[in-house]
Amino acid sequence: MTRVDLNCDMGESYGAFTIGNDAAVFPFITSANIACGFHGGDPGVMRRTVLAAVQYGVAIGAHPGLPDLIGFGRREMAVTAQDVYDMVVYQVGALRAVATAASTQLRHVKPHGALYNMAAAQPVLATAIAHAIRDTDPALRLVGRAGSALIAAGRAASLITASEVFADRHYQADGALVSRSLDNAVIASVDEAVQRAIEMVRHHRVTAIDGTTIAIQADTLCVHGDAPHAPALVRELRSALASAGVDVRPLDADTAA
Length: 257
Prior knowledge:
The chain has one domain (3-253): TIM Barrel (Alpha-Beta Barrel). The relative contact order is 0.17. Helix content is 38%, strand content 18%. The strands form two sheets. Strands 1-2-3-4-5-6-9 form a seven-stranded parallel barrel, surrounded by six helices. A two-stranded antiparallel sheet has the order 7-8. With 257 residues, the protein is of the alpha/beta class. α3 runs parallel beside α5 (123-136). It starts with a strand and ends in a 9-residue tail after the last strand.
């Protein structure tokens, strides 16, 4: 049976600011990428999100980003490989401590936003992330964009990797995501996003923004938690994937490598 993990970026609220509707999303996902305080999240939000994940039986992953609360971690910064290494070690370590206090553990690491996209295209940054994970806990999986430098760096560092695809984002012909600076970057239609997700998971292909069809590996399927339609999308995805004969389960229950 075809398998896939359904993940969502979670715990991105901070202070008096609420981002996303985590409570409505948790019942339908199998993995949560939890913000670690740099682009979103704070100690209390991290704790509450970890406890919610435990309550729903959802696998917990760290979601480290650039230190940019105002830009939500989606603006590129001039960072060195050492900067990236240090940021990832710091953030993964913080969430790992929160998980330990809740008598649970981290399962994976997925970079956020601009850090994710920069590392997907720049092997030196991807290697810094992979080494940070390896040196923190080599049992953690590295989640990265399918076909990107992140996946290659993870494998080179002897990490288990998971190739990620996006239900609610458009792709370029080279497999990169369409920049959020463009109006057509995000797919607003739940029906369209669901159909594209089924195509990627079942048939390992996706239609790029220029109309070309590109091959893609789908170990884990992402929905952005800050998107207004996230609760509706994860609910429809679970139903559609089941109808298509896809087994939705956490990454540590499949054979992603």
